[in-house]
Amino acid sequence: MKLKHVTLLLLISLSFKPFNSWSQGFLKAKGTQIVNQKGENVLLRGIGLGGWMLQEGYMLRVNGQGQQHKIRAGIESLIGAQKTQEFYDAWLENHTTKADIDSLKAWGFNSVRLPMHFNLYTLPVDKEPVAGQNTWLEKGFAMTDSLLAWCKANKMYLILDLHAAPGGQGNDLNISDRDGSKPSLWESEPDRLKTVALWKKLAERYQDEPFIGAYDILNEPNYGFEDPENDKNGLKEQNNVPLKQLLQDITKAIREVDSRHIIIIEGNGWGNNYNGMLPPWDKNMVLSFHKYWNLNDTKSIQHILDFRQKYNVPVWLGETGENSNVWFMEAIRLFEKNNIGWSWWPLKKLGSNNPLEIRSNEKYMRVINYISGKGSAPASDMAYEGLMEVARGANIHNNIIHRDVIDAMIRQPFSDKTLPFKNNTINNTGTLEAVDYDLGANRAAYFDTDTANYRINNPKWVGGNRGRVYRNDGMDIVADSAKADSYYVTDFATGEWLKYTINMTLKGKYTLSFIAAPGKAPGKLAVTIDGKPVGKVTVVPAKGNMSGEWQTYNLQNIALRNGRQTLRLFAEAGGFDLKAIRFEKSPVP
């Protein structure tokens, strides 16, 4: 208990000053704004709890068909039904806790989006004991109650999102855990009736809760009604009649018991195709859109701005993320400039481009390789150990905290100032890891020529940190295979640079040793201290050495004062790797 308390204090100590976002009664739509009970504009800054109630394959590093029911079946084939249930119980218990919500508040978020899987709230239609009736399960409601209590304690809004509807709402099977061998939501009236009934049940339960910010009634519909063969995901759908009808039926059911909560609707084609669906049919409605991998310019959101203006209705960015810090900062600047609230995706997964990362392990990866068809079945005991380690690792106290991601979302959109990534204090001697350059935006803390993934506009643009480890900036970082938990900057390209804030405890003359691995062509590194050039080193293989081998390149007699100062490394000729900078004070004559 004491350890957990200390860990939570650590999480909060890493935080940035939160925005003022005290709840003031029920949120509601007023013209083009979302406002509180006092009529004040509320800009939602939130994050989605993807992977908690609904596991998508990529979040667990499963390749191919990553529907949760298939992942579960694969696990069950290895360890049996009882131990599989133990894994899922441990996963649900650890993934999202009060400490997660406390930390989100401390970091500066004011809302949370809960992606719900219907099967935690009610039975599938084909498993109902009596056809046409609804069996309600306490598990999902209890989890939602706990999450709501944690949000209320932090004065944060909770947005309920039906992420996996009965039958599945699209042909992107993973996002709704859809079983493609069974009728979809759109092909099954019993599934649609159950969806409507679920929302009425939720509205009955939470009708008097002002910290429920809104009901996001159907996540990312993606279904071709008119041309299912050539438009499977509904991107070109012109009328969206079945989608509009279901959303209207859900709205009617909610309003029979709850007149106060905002209802959020999403278009077809993963949330953006509103053809035939507007104008809104409810006075307290918000239009959602989702945005991934395109440019962060006004053109990219013009369609939703036009809807807002034409129909005098608020809009909300319900889901975005899965990119680099540069993209995050650009996007948030764009949204907030246009008074659009946002919810990032996701808080955590087995991957680094989110605030929290769940650690993997070798035994777990044996399970995943088997499920993905890339390896043989591991022994049952080994599989169980690896799975339970990941389930425990999903707890925030065991997560890797990516401060650079949090900084890019909360501080960098509004400040060009840089901050030290670590306390780089140097005494007589010391080592500065190359990957620990300052926190801040591209062109402020570092400069990289390939910073983000804009692939919808140009499929060849695959940018950001291509190593996908340690940090989520533009710089390419990879793990050192020779040493655990060790990383280095790779492919330090011509024109790129890195800035470090260092604190010297003793003034004097120092030798700076750069640990670098030469590329195929000679590289050159220029060094400045507080903007003043102090020397250059040429990065070429030494006699008898090969390119790609770590070597040491020295700059001697570099005068450093005591106190804080700035070291900048500029690649005049790039193509090499950089691991560390060592400082050694020269003896006084």
Automatic annotation (TrEMBL):
SMART domains: CBD_IV (SM00606). Coiled coil: none annotated. GO terms for cellular component: cell surface; extracellular region. Signal peptide: none annotated. Gene3D superfamilies: Galactose-binding domain-like, Glycosidases. Pfam families: CBM_6 (PF03422), Cellulase (PF00150). Transmembrane segments: none annotated. InterPro entries: CBM6, Cellulose-bd_IV, Galactose-bd-like_sf, GH, Glyco_hydro_5, Glycosyl_hydrolase_5. GO terms for biological process: glucan catabolic process. Keywords: Glycosidase, Hydrolase, Signal. Residues 452-584 form the CBM6 domain. GO terms for molecular function: beta-glucosidase activity; carbohydrate binding. Belongs to the glycosyl hydrolase 5 (cellulase A) family. This is Carbohydrate binding protein with CBM6 domain. It comes from Chitinophaga ginsengisoli.
